[in-house]
Structures are given as C-alpha cells and as structure tokens.
Amino acid sequence: MSELTLTVMRLGFLAVLWLFVIVAVQVIRSDLFGTRVTQRSAQRAGRRDAGRPQQQTAARQAPPPQRQQPAGGRQRRNAPTKLVVTEGTLTGTTVALQGQTITLGRAHDSTIVLDDDYASSRHARIYPDRDGQWIVEDLGSTNGTYLDRTRLTTPTPIPLGAPIRIGKTVIELRK
Amino acid sequence: MSSTTNSPTHHTSTIGSIGTPSRRNTELALLVFAVAIPVFAYANVGLAINDEVPSGLLAYGLGLGLLAGVGHLVVRKFAPYADPLLLPLATLLNGLGLVVIWRLDQSKLLQSIKQAGTAAPRQLMYTAMGIALFIAVLIFLKDHRVLQRYTYISMVGALFLLLLPLVPGLGQNIYGAKIWISVAGFSIQPGEFAKIVLAIFFAGYLMVKRDALALASRRFMGLYLPRGRDLGPILVVWAISILILVFETDLGTSLLFFGMFVIMLYVATERTSWIVFGLLMSAAGAVGVASFEPHIQQRVDAWLDPMKEYTLSRQGIPGHSEQAMQALWAFGSGGTLGTGLGQGHSDLIRFAANSDFILATFGEELGLAGIMAILLIYGLIVERGVRTALAARDPFGKLLAIGLSGAFALQVFVVAGGVMGLIPLTGMTMPFLAYGGSSVIANWALVGILIRISDTARRPAPAPATNPDAEMTQVVRPS
C-alpha cells in the first residue's frame, strides 16, 4: 500500500473521529432546551384549520398529552386567549392559552422557564377549570405567588389583566 | 376554545410547551456513524499490515452493526425517551477497542509470547454477552427505583464480590494483583461488577442518611466538620478500601471504590469538607500501605523512575517490567497525528498490551489528536450520566446516576493516568476499549442502568391529574 494512501487514510480517520465528536456535541446542544420559542411574523391562516396551533406543529415529536377543552364547552365571553409576560427577563413573551396547563418555574421542563433567583423550580401553574375559567395555583413555592397584592394560598381564578407576580416576573392574561 | 380564537399577530415570541422529544432517530443516525468508524479503522489496519482489505471486514461490520441494531431496537421499545448519545458513544468505543485488539493480534511479537492472537474473536463474544446483559437490564429493570429495595443486599453482595478473589483456590494472583477469580476456565474480575452493586448500595444508603450527614455539623475554618459519629460510614468504606489495597494489592480498585463513595457523599450532602477529608484519607492510606507493601512499592518506584525500571527489566532481573517506559515511548513516537493505524510498534509493551495498556496503542497510532477524541468520547459519556442525574426527579436515581458516571470517570482517569505516567500504574482496564470480558460486560450493564434512569428522567411528566374534589370545593374569590 502506497505511503500516500496510508497518510490520507490516517488523516481521514482522525477527521471522521473528530466529526463524530462534533456531531455528538451538536446533539447535546439541541438537547439542552425543554421548550421551543418560535418567533412569529406573518400568520398563516391555513394552519389554524387543522385544529393544531402553530407552535405545536413546530414541536418535534411526542407533544405532551394535552387536556383539551370538552368539545361542547361553553364559550365564555371575555375569555383570555394569551398569557403575556409584562415584567422580568422574559418580557414580551406570550403563551397562547389553549386549554393546556402552563407550568412556571425554574425547572427545565416548565412551560415558562423562569431565570429568577426568587422563583422555585416548580413555582406555580395556570390551568383552566371545567368552565374554562383560568386558575392560578401556587405549587408550594418558597417566595410565593402574588395575584395583584395578595399572596395566593388557594387556587384562585385569574381576572383578565390582573398581574400575577412571581419573583421579578409579572405575567397577565389578555384577550 | 383553542381552535376558534384568532391568533394574535403582534407579540414577539411564543413559548409552546413541547415534551422532551424521544430522539430515537438521532440515536439511530449516530449509531450508524458509530459503526461505520470502526469498520473504516478495520479496513485501514488491514491495508496497513497486510496490504489488503481484511477478509473479515464484512462479518465484523455486520456483527457490530447487528449488536448495535438490536441494542437500539430494545432501547426504542423499552426506553423510548432515553438519552440518545449513550448507546452510540459506547458502541463506538467498543468497536474501536475491537479493531485495535485485532490489530495487536496480528503482531508476531505478541503472538510469540501468547499475549495475543485470538483475542479479537473472544472480545467480540464478550461484547455480545455485554449487549445481552444491557438488553436484559432494559427489559427486566422497568424502573430503577426497584433497586432501592435491595440497598443492604447490595452491600452484602458487593462485599462478597470484593472478597471473592481472596478465597483460596478461587482467587488468582496474576502479575502481583489478586483481583481475578477463575471459574470454569474463565478469568473474571469481580471488582468490575462490584462497582455497579456498590453504587446501588451507596445511593440507597446516602438517600436515607444524607440529612444527618449534611446538617449536623460544626463550622470550622470555612469547612463544615461532621460530628464524630457521622464519620462512621466514611471510615468503614475507607477501611474496606485499605483492606483491598493490602490484601488484593490493587491500588485502582481501592481508589475507585473510595473515590466513588466520596463523590456520592459530596453530591448527597453538598459539603465540600467531605472531599477534603476523602482526599486526605486516601492519600494517607495509599502512602501508609505503599510504605510496607512490596508490590505497591514497586509500582510507585516504576512510576517515579520508569527508565530505571526499564533498565532493570532489560538486565533480566525478575519482578521488573518495561511496560511503563515502553508505553511512554509509544505515546512519544505517536506525536500529534500518530503513525497511522497498524503502523506503530506498541506491541513492544508485551504484557497486557491489549488490555491495561491499550491506550498506548491508540496514543501511538492515532497520536495526540486521536487520544484527545477518545478521551472526549469518555467525557461525553460521563457528561450524559451527570446530565441524567440532574434531570432525574427522584433522589435515588440522581445519586445512582452520579455514582455510576463518577465511577466510570474515575476508572478512565486511573487507567489513563497510569498508562501516561501521571499516577502509579494499577490493574484496571479502560472501559469498553480494553480486552477483558468482565470489564466489557459490566460496563454495558452500567450503560444499561444509565439509559434506564435517563428514560425515566426525560419522560414527559404526566399532566397534573384533575382533582376529583374540584367540583365540590368552593373556590374562594377574593373581593
């Protein structure tokens, strides 16, 4: 076997080995995020007909089991459609309210991952009750969840536009 | 409600909750890659040594591919959310190990001293047994928390495994270290299996006792000093590891167990003082034993002055070995890019060239670039283990994952450090790379348990159950 071929194979093998390492690191990188943030610009109307919201189609595999609203559920007037972060590092972020439970906390698998020293890892959750009324519940957090100025002790319905404060983050429900 | 609302257009970004994806297809793609690299290496060795593509190339590729494929299918079926990297990384290391073992089989020198020749087919068989155990772990261990029930049985089992080599007639003294037993013509290293069983015991024990160990302490010079009676467990483990050192004369095994305990103790209690204590105690123990145990003494001498050891061995004085110096020369002659697979002279190491010293062959033939890639792959396995521990929701799983990946990391450090002359040489083998049935089989079981824990940890959390009392509870609305 000629010297040249062996040299090419030697360097080629090292290159392939390092390529594997780099690919593996890329996989780790794509593995780090528990939630996907989609930047939205123009709406594509056709997507809504499928009954699946856009960010769910963007989700890769195995979307979590969702608690869909009962099909015959009464449509409430003044029902909020989205949750908006109004203060804190995540200001401007919104989550569409589609009958799913929204978890807040520092845990990486929360719907809204709070980067906040005052938040617990599983701080609070927001979910619709049977009538479609959105409820906020504190999950035994250390520093508490505040609705307006009151600290929550029980699951409490959220009025439209009322600020919910968790540490430095403030969120509210909007139409 | 969801399908009828108008989606807003003006906000900046939206968070959609997605479950951790299962990543099985990523794993499959990486696995194909991980099988292709050793096949390439195999062809390379054949071309370099015999000027032809080796005749067994297809069989080898298919064999490794089949084993990896079966492993992948079982993961897909029984652990669908498991980490996508552990299996491909382990497969790659195992495949590269097989190639280099086969390459050393071709060495006339090693054949003449019966150190190699038929090692590769046997190693392939051990790999098959290892993957079989890996599959068995995934099928029969549905939930790693079951292991918690066997905390104290594990302790007895681990002690039994550790003491087996000392049983007269069963234990074997190979080149000075008594860490093997001989059963039906096979040499088994029970320590490799004890590593896993002991991790189960430590995890179960520390989970229960960690509060007592963490909280009851005094602060002294910036360190939390534990109470005297809480020092009991660490003293017992220390004593056992010293006994291993004295009676089995194996520094590696001793260091591995004590190190694993200290790592788990630190993770369980978050007290840095345990690490300081652990380092002091292991240093004191190692120095103390080395001062009177001739076998350890000799290993230390060979580490401090490998050239003298080499000269003594050359003069034919028994009890000395030129391994350490030859390994260093192998690394040196490899340089940055290596001599190329099949073109080095690492067979000059003679004894254990394809087991304890296999890293020297990698160092010579793949050079610094190759050895760094190999060490990074080990690092990635450990990283995935630690990541699994971080993601695990139960404290037992956390501690077990940390213990197993910590033991894996320590083993790599102890072996690589020994071969490269950083620490005295020990009788342990490089996980997955080195020739040896016990090591390959035990480490596949270890990876199996890590995959099981990571599957549990990454499985999307079930939606919070609707409270059955919800309708009856009157919701208090603050006015």
From TrEMBL, chain A:
Residues 102-152 form the FHA domain. Residues 52-61 have a biased composition (Low complexity). This is FHA domain-containing protein. The keyword DNA-binding does not apply. PANTHER family: NUCLEAR INHIBITOR OF PROTEIN PHOSPHATASE-1. Keywords: Phosphoprotein. Residues 38-80 are annotated as: Disordered. It comes from the Bacteria. Gene3D superfamilies: 2.60.200.20. SMART domains: FHA (SM00240).
From TrEMBL, chain B:
GO terms for cellular component: cell division site; plasma membrane. The chain crosses the membrane at residues 28-49, 55-74, 86-104, 124-141, 150-167, 179-208, 229-247, 253-269, 274-292, 357-378, 399-426, 432-451. It is a multi-pass membrane protein. It is found in: Membrane. InterPro entries: FtsW/RodA. GO terms for molecular function: lipid-linked peptidoglycan transporter activity. Signal peptide: none annotated. Keywords: Cell cycle, Cell division, Cell shape, Membrane, Transmembrane, Transmembrane helix. GO terms for biological process: cell division; regulation of cell shape. Its main location: membrane. This is Cell division protein FtsW. It comes from Streptomyces actuosus.
